[in-house]
Amino acid sequence: MNMLDSELVVASLRKDGYELTNSVREADTILYNTCSVRQHAEDKIYSALGRLKNLKRRHPDKVIGVLGCMAQKDQGLIFQRAPYVDLIVGPGQLHQVPALVREIQQQGGQRMEVSLGRKEGTRVEIERSHESFDPLRDPTMRPTPFQAYVRIMIGCDKFCTYCIVPSVRGPEQSRPPADILAEGRQLAGEGCREITLLGQTVNSYRYPNGERTWRLSDLLEGLHAIDGIERIKFVTNYPKDMTDGLLSAVRDLPKCSKYLHVPVQSGANTVL
Ligand code: SF4
Question: Which terminus has fewer CB within 10 Å in the chain: N or C?
Answer without folding.
Answer: C
